Amino acid sequence: MAKHLNTTEESMGQVVIIEDESESRKAMRLALAKKGYHVEDFNDGAAGIEHIRRHSGDIDLVITDLRMPGTDGLTVLRETKKANEEIGIILVTAFASVDSAVEAMKLGADDYLTKPIDLYEFRARVSKLITNTSLNREVAMLQSRLDKQYGFENIIGKSAVMERLFEKVRVVAGTNANVLLLGESGTGKELFANALHQHSQKKGQRFLPINCAAIPSEILESELFGHERGAFTGAVTRKIGKFELAGNGTIFLDEIGDMNLDLQAKLLRVLENREFTRVGGSDMIRIQSRFVFATNRNLMEEVREGRFREDLYYRINVVTLQIPPLWQRKEDIPLLVKHFLGRFNEDHGKSVKELDPAAMKALCAYAWPGNIRELRNVMEHLVIFCKGDRITREDFPEYLEQREDRPRSVTIPVGMTMGQLEQEAIRQMMAHCGNNKTRAAELLDISLRTLQRKVKEMEEQGETF
Ligand SMILES: Nc1ncnc2c1ncn2[C@@H]1O[C@H](COP(=O)(O)OP(=O)(O)OP(=O)(O)O)[C@@H](O)[C@H]1O
Ligand SMILES: [Mg+2]
């Protein structure tokens, strides 16, 4: 836990005191130091501000006198807020300047004290404010961590389709309607499910993902519904299922297309009645959570084939977000490449700066059947194996070259013999690979020695490569 959340008085809250009257300054300092606070004190505003600017990340609280020669307390207040909004501020005023105190509160002071200072009161107020500041900081930190992981800034994309999708997510997230996410494997369905949760009112609640394809159906039922003790052989204790655990949060039923028909019927009932019982139980339990579903299957097709219940299909297909495959938004590729480059540099302690234009072009031309997951894996590979600070096509994993470059069709004139066909294949592949025998052999799926032998034979017949 961050040191700031440690809010007992023995913990070292950092306090700055700015006060021109030395008696009062010393009294305050001593009162706080005795309680274990780390105190820095200054007798003029300018020096205090200087210190605050330099240590703004560590300071919890600033206590400043309002009236001081030179830089006054209001300036200290403004400059402190500028340096770090989260630092708490207590203004100390003489009784005569209550108006300024009111103004100070308006400007963002958290508290004020009038002279002469009651030290007991003083310590209590300080303690309270430091606790607040620490909690605020902790919350802000957790928040930014969550936003970073799941916010839109982590779903990379600037293509028009993605922009539209982000907009839709913003709108839909606020409604708490159940959502179906459709898209090929690796397009980011799970990322979007998270984003929906993070942008909804359920943000602070649980997000529970369950992969329906990864869990055998007998187990899946009790994973979702929970079960009572003795509900079936092996049910030695009561188990609380995900529907119940999710509370007021979000349940993400991933690969819903893989759920068996029996369980589909039970799920339909839950969605319709918004209540359920544990397996082997009779207590009705209300559902409060939101459902997000995802599948990379064509659900309409599954319905036609009798593998997916039509009524369930219509039930979950109310708000549907279609995530486009990567090949339909190639303009996002350079952005994603840059994103993953940064990320994997960091992960693997590398400092690869860029891809040369030919390499980038090749990545943009590739079809990406595995979508962003595949791009991500390729980028990790490239960063790991890159020797300098620039990735070239030489660094590409072989399979990428193969899938991207393999000629799609060869014309075979009628009357061609098997031997001629083989030679034609070698001729084309050698041309394609710039006469690099190793690569040509790989792409032809024969050994290098075999290729060398065949090339030699062809050369003996007068061919040149
Ligand atoms: N737009 C994006 N920006 C950044 N990373 C992305 C994006 N889309 C997907 N990813 C990353 O690609 C990987 C695959 O994404 P995810 O698991 O969400 O795909 P999926 O659609 O759920 O795939 P599957 O159908 O196979 O489960 C993850 O590592 C994810 O972080
Ligand atoms: Mg997934």
UniProtKB/TrEMBL annotation:
GO biological process per UniProt: phosphorelay signal transduction system; regulation of DNA-templated transcription
Record-annotated Sigma-54 factor interaction domain positions: 155-384
Keywords (A to Z) from UniProt: ATP-binding, Nucleotide-binding, Phosphoprotein, Transcription, Transcription regulation
Top-level lineage group: Bacteria
GO molecular function: ATP binding; sequence-specific DNA binding
Listed Pfam families: AAA_lid_14, HTH_8, Response_reg, Sigma54_activat
Modified residues (4-aspartylphosphate): 65
Signal sequence extent: none
Keyword ATP-binding part of the UniProt annotation: yes
Start and end residues of each Response regulatory domain: 14-130
Protein name per UniProt: Sigma-54-dependent Fis family transcriptional regulator
